[in-house]
Amino acid sequence: MLNIMFQTIKNIKNSYFIIFLLTFLLSNFKTTNAEIIYNGTLIDAHSQVGILISNEEVSKEINNNDVFLTFLSMRGKHENATKRYKSIQKQTQGKVRYLISTKLKGFARKKRDPNEAIRGIKDLKRQAINNKIKYIGFGEIIVQHAPHDHEKLKYEGINLDLKSYRIKKAIDIVFKDDVPVILHVEMNDYEEDSKKILDQLIEIGNEYPNKIFLLMHMAQIEFEEAKFIFENTKNVHFITSHSDPYRAKNEKRKRLGKAQTGWINLFNKKNNLKKKWKNLMNENPNRFVFAIDNVFDHHWKKNYKERVYFWRKALASLNKNTASLIACGNANTYFKLKIQCK
Ligand SMILES: [Zn+2]
Questions:
Q1: Model pTM?
Q2: How far is the CA of 142 from the centre of ligand 1 (A)?
Q3: Which regions in the chain score pLDDT beneath 70?
Q4: How many angstroms does the Cα of residue 327 sit away from the middle of ligand 1?
């Protein structure tokens, strides 16, 4: 009898062990499943190249990544912009497209003469045309930008709105080419003006129903405000740059008061897209455009590949059609690229 009892206990132990083993294997299987990534064509619809990185270095990073096309706008010296772009284009064998920078002549410096800044954009456009560059649009227009006190950028900040003289003038230039208007607003860093900016975005979207407006860095927007924009416009969309955990680590910055602290994070602690944002994307697949927006040298050199992989995983969690549109299809349509998104 005792023997049988021991045997039973042993069996129970064994079956527990088997259950434990199965659970372990299954949960492991699950995590490998979560690593499914979106393998289709990926476009980075806005990145920047400045003086801290060479053409060779940027080209190397672009060539080392599986981003199909990178839209580039230049920082730094006005005179070198198209020359630099052409060099990168050559070294990457055409993996880049040109966005004419709107900020090279002090556009976002509030003390700078706005007319000079506007002339600077027109000069750059002329420079691109003279150099036979088929530009696809213009880089982000800085409407609001928190002050920076950083070794890589010292900057007093600017807080304009869509009715400001220089913003209207810049938008007019973009309108002439019938390409998307990319706006950089900071609805979180300038929370006190977010209602005004929100109303103006809806107003301009409806006033120009045939134009496309793209809000860089998700406009640092709150979820409800994003929904509000979708409900009230058809042509105001979001660019996903600076909305992942890589840029949202703001605590240190907040303490030091060194730069923007308002970047939003579309991801939860497990690095999955938050459910509400994921649903919003699936319900509105045409309203998001993927971009990384590398700005400084370390954005290109550190974690770039990792970030692309991170986003490919996020895209894989969306409906297939949604992922393909955000990764490639929407940029293809809005910038009239005429490429094939695979
Ligand atoms: Zn920006």
A1: 0.88
A2: 7
A3: 1-34, 248-259
A4: 19
